[in-house]
Automatic annotation (TrEMBL), chains A, B:
Its cofactor is pyridoxal 5'-phosphate. The keyword Transferase applies. PANTHER family: AMINOTRANSFERASE, KYNURENINE_ALPHA-AMINOADIPATE AMINOTRANSFERASE, MITOCHONDRIAL. This is Aminotransferase class I/II-fold pyridoxal phosphate-dependent enzyme. SUPFAM superfamilies: PLP-dependent transferases (SSF53383). Residues 71-419 form the Aminotransferase class I/classII large domain. It comes from the Bacteria. One of its GO terms (molecular function) is transaminase activity. Keywords: Aminotransferase, Pyridoxal phosphate, Transferase.
Length: 439, 439
């Protein structure tokens, strides 16, 4: 068989595979690569409890008879989901976002939410997407699958370089292209760790309005600020003109094994024949041909967890929030202890100190390619992610991403020892030997 | 917002919506429309038992430690799934299909399996798909989403008109197109109820080999033969040249609420750079950008049900199989009682007697459009599906599909009384009045 869709040969799709394979090949390495949530508090025994709690909600709160409860869990169901009302309540409680539950589509993880939106927005080959660069590789991969080019927008000191954003939009339009939306992760972005402050969010919304540009706000990490950092309202909470499609995940706040995410799409869509519909309903039509509906059982588990905590994931994640904040603190301190400043205040390597989330970027004075990662795994027993995977193309970048979400305090210390040994080794090797196999 | 992907205005996507809306609007109507499985034997209490059974399998059969059991259920997981070995065992036990578990991708229902295959096969605008017509609307909808035209292949007395199939392939190639595959449901097809006998299957495989055409075999109903009907080997069981991609569903044999299906893709793919890979691995790369992986919890529920019955769904569905066979018998007898033959052996209406499955097609001497369905629901309290939804275009067809999967014996009797009243009424109305609003 030959001649499959070209996305299959694209770095966006092969990246994910390569990174997974390295992780599987070195299962005993300490992983600063994995973005998966902390698992110390997972308990298989909870699952039945969550199912029971959700079934009780259907019976006691919604008044379903036993047959309807069974049907809701076992049969095909509503395309837009069966926990939409609980998601709406969660958004109100934790994010002060007020939305009509009908504008929510529960999806198979946030990935499907992104995929549905990109599929809808890509009508023909004039359409392009903007994305703040470096970008989550799952966004780029989904865009490749629907043949939607992604134009990178520069990261500025405020998270997004708005001058570059406007320039990109104007340049695309001048070339006959249609910039459909800009993808942004305003809270503790993956991979950069950067956040937008309140003023930057307001300016971004103003630019989006002025340029008639949809914003795709992806918010998997917003519940996890660093020690002492304040949470900032989401773009969707500030959105007065339905300029924002909100992409939500329960992978980090409930459990990835459910594969339940959602989107909020309260925009009005006008079809060619003049009929007006809700964007969420159009996206549900696409979903009906991709996955039909999200597993009712998986939704019930997430619904049960929401109900156990009054629909507050802030409350549900108190221990996890403390663990992530502690890990970020330990990682920053551990790096500082191993790479002290020179007298002039500079360091041999540098890193950002994010205001929260899972990720921190270390900048080094040499290119970081996949061969170096392989060497790190094999010889030093430590995994991380080369930053070039988050940029278009495959040119190595002098930076690597560290994730703190799936390591213990002890692992952070020994992982940093291993990383420091790798970095020392890479600094001492002659430049020619540093990049075996790279272009 | 305007200018979304054109599939959103396509009958394939609007059909599903319309049919769902009618069903929701008339919840008390007797439904010969729903293809959902019989629900009398569903029991919410079973879910926790299935989860336990699967966790015990991970621990006792696969030797996982408790931490790995928890991680398997709670965390992100293998893109190709965690019950692939059980699916392979099920195929061996129930279908005598022998496949390497590595060639299996567990998907979010059979719909995602179809979607992934069509996405991979549609590389550019020369690619086309063939499908035996009338066709399951979910296939057509998925094809629309990846901009893949579907060329209808005629249904013949043997299920597929092979002369037409070859003619279609040759005509497409002569026009510079690439027919990538032919979609077929060889067992009790939705919507036609038709099946291919063993000889027809062998001939279809020969034609596929001669024409270098992939066959997409969709088999949701194969476990449900009518009374006395024998099961026939699947195309995949007869497939000696990796000509068949097998699409599997657990919606009818386990529970739709899990949204777990799978595909078997043991073909070798050669990329432009000469590297060879397994088609299943290429499809998994696409899946990683659509849904990441199938819910581990949903897979565990299905896995537990498989394990409870020695991986035999034939064994697991003894009661369901008897119920479906009984319902098919009652429907045929009920139609015969209400619409006796004339002295010349003909009937005012006619229907096929399928060798199994969920569906039977009634042919009537008047066009069956959506307005008639709406009238049937509102005035007669009975739902069914106009056959035109399974053909390209929206011209009404003189036929309707009846499903026996979600009705009781009593409902079949009263549903048929209502249907007979509707048909008598439609026959007595002048032709002009029969088709309000239709073209």
């Amino acid at each position: 068989m030959t001649g499959l869709h070209p996305a299959l040969a694209d770095p966006a799709l092969t990246s994910m595979n390569f990174l997974n394979e390295i992780a599987q090949h070195y299962p005993d390495a300490i992983s600063f690569a994995a973005g998966r949530p902390y698992e110390e508090f997972f308990d298989v025994g909870q699952l039945a409890g969550y199912l029971d709690r959700f079934a009780a909600h259907l019976r006691d709160d919604l008044g379903y008879d036993p047959q309807r409860v069974t049907r809701t869990l076992f049969q095909y169901g509503r395309t837009k989901g069966i926990i939409h009302h609980l998601v709406a309540r969660n958004l109100a409680v934790d994010e002060r976002i007020t939305v009509d539950p009908e504008s929510i589509v529960v999806t198979v993880g946030c990935q499907e939410a992104m995929f549905l939106v990109l599929r809808a927005l890509r009508a023909d080959d004039r359409d392009v997407l903007l994305a703040v660069s470096p970008t989550y590789v799952g966004l780029t991969g989904a865009a490749r699958l629907v043949d939607l080019p992604v134009l990178p927008v520069a990261t500025g000191p405020d998270g997004v370089d708005l001058v570059d954003l406007v320039a990109q939009v104007h340049r695309a339009r001048a070339a006959g292209l249609r910039p459909r939306a800009c993808y942004v992760m305003p809270d503790f972005a993956n991979p950069s760790g950067l956040s937008l402050d309140l003023a930057a969010r307001r300016r971004l919304l103003e630019v989006a309005t002025a340029e008639d540009l949809l914003l795709l706000e992806d918010n998997p990490y917003g519940l996890f600020p660093a020690d002492g950092a304040a949470r900032v309202p989401t773009l969707k909470a500030l959105d007065e003109r339905a300029q924002v499609v909100y992409l939500g995940s329960f992978a980090k706040t409930a459990l990835p094994g459910a594969r339940v995410g959602y989107l909020v799409a309260d925009q009005r869509v006008t079809a060619a024949d003049g009929t007006v519909s809700l964007f969420a309903d159009e996206l549900a039509k696409i979903k009906s041909m991709v996955t039909v509906n999200t597993s009712a059982i998986a939704q019930a588990v997430v619904g049960g967890r929401l109900l156990e905590h009054g629909c507050s994931l802030l409350a549900a994640n108190q221990r996890e929030r403390a663990a992530y904040a502690r890990n970020l603190r330990l990682l920053d301190a551990g790096l500082a202890a191993r790479f002290p400043r020179f007298a002039d205040g500079r360091r041999v390597i540098d890193w950002n100190v994010p205001a929260g989330g899972f990720f921190l970027v270390v900048t080094v004075p040499f290119p970081v390619d996949d061969a170096l990662l392989e060497r790190s795994a094999r010889r030093y027993g430590v995994l991380w992610t080369p930053m070039h995977h988050f940029y278009d193309g495959s040119t190595p970048v002098n930076a690597l991403r560290l994730s703190i979400s799936a390591v213990t305090a002890d692992q952070i210390e020994s992982g940093l020892d291993r990383l420091a040994a790798l970095i020392r080794d890479a600094l001492e090797r002659p430049p020619a030997a540093r990049r075996p196999g790279s272009a």
